[in-house]
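QA checklist item 7 of 12: single-chain prediction sanity check.
[x] sequence parsed
[x] length recorded as 96
[x] structure emitted
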Amino acid sequence: MHPYLMRIGGFDRVGGWKWEGHRTCAHWVSLHTSNNLATSREHVRVARALEHLPEIGAALARGALSFSQVRALTPVRHPRRPLPGHAVRRARDADP
């Protein structure tokens, strides 16, 4: 899941979805993955959030956190508000 989200994040960052005339990156993802639009929106949202959460991304990459866990952690963060300490510790210390 981590490589998939990183590709989506990069694709969104460069606006690749605009090249084909899609309304949003989630619309492009939905079309090309056969996921419904709600699922695609969540994938794009989490991919964007992981750009600013390297410890959470690393934990997802090594399998210490599932996508569901990462999804639950990402709305907590605000650019001016750090992640709660327990979330950072969980991401850093989770066994693979």
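[x] summary fact logged: Residues 37-50 form the longest helix (14 residues).
[ ] second reviewer sign-off
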